Amino acid sequence: MGNGMSACTGMLSRDVVADDARRSFTARLGAEAIRTGQALGYALEEILHIDPEVIARAGEGDAEARAEYDRKCLAEAARGGAHRPSMGQDMVKGRRTEIEFLNGFVADRAATLGIPTPANTALTEIVKKVERGELQPDPRHILELRLN
Predict the structure, then answer these.
(1) Which site from 83, 101, 126, 135 is most exposed, i.e. has the minimal number of CB atoms within 10 Å?
(2) Are 127 and 87 in contact (CB under 8 A)?
(3) The model scores a pTM over 0.85
(4) Does the structure show a pLDDT above 80 at 40?
(5) Helices 63-79 and 20-39: crossing angle, nearest 10°?
(6) What is the b/e burial string over 84-112, where b = at least 16 CB atoms within 10 angstroms of the residue's CB?
(7) Which pLDDT tens digit goes with each residue over 64-114?
(8) Sequence-separated contacts (24+) of 132-138 with Cβ below 8 Å
(9) Separation in Å, CA 93 to CA 11, 87, 89
């Protein structure tokens, strides 16, 4: 949920989490991935110390789950989070990212199941554009999607 966000925005993890709209988008990314994994029969473990069902419901708009997701993400960011995920580091160093094998993989697998993944699909395309030099990393890329 954080790798592609760092790559396309240029932000550190804690800064992505600190912003309500971007944190909401991370929940959307997680919800799509979790629902895809569940449809494929995977038994999922906690993600970032959060029950996957809480993340999925938060990303799907459940207010109670969103409050829990926000509380846990913000608490985790307060304990640390001053790091740049590996994909963000790749982008800074001009290296090719693994976006197609993370968020792109979710979108591809979900498509075969008929599960819509607008957040993962959009993030994959934005990261590819940044990778190719068509866009510069910018926090606005996520906000301008209007998927929250």
Answers:
(1) 101
(2) yes
(3) yes
(4) yes
(5) 110
(6) bbebbebbeeeeebbbeebbbbbbbbbee
(7) 999 999 999 999 888 876 788 888 888 888 888 999 999 999 999 999 999
(8) 135/8, 136/10, 137/7, 137/8, 137/9, 137/10, 137/91, 138/8, 138/9, 138/10
(9) 14, 10, 6
Domain residue extents for the chain: 3-143
Per-residue tokens: 96: 């090719």
List Cβ neighbours of 113 (8 Å cut-off, separation of 6 or more). Answer: 36, 39, 40
C-alpha distances out from residue 67 to 32, 52, 54, 115, 120, Å: 18, 14, 10, 25, 22
Integer Cα distance of 50 and 71 in angstroms: 10
Tally of CA atoms within 13 A in the half-sphere of 114 that contains its CB: 0
In which residue are the tokens 């819509």 written? 116
Q: How many CA atoms lie within 13 A of 14 on its CB side?
A: 9
Collapse the DSSP code of 56 into the 3-class scheme (helix H, G, I; strand E, B; otherwise coil) and give the result.
helix
- Tell me the CATH class for 3-143: mainly alpha
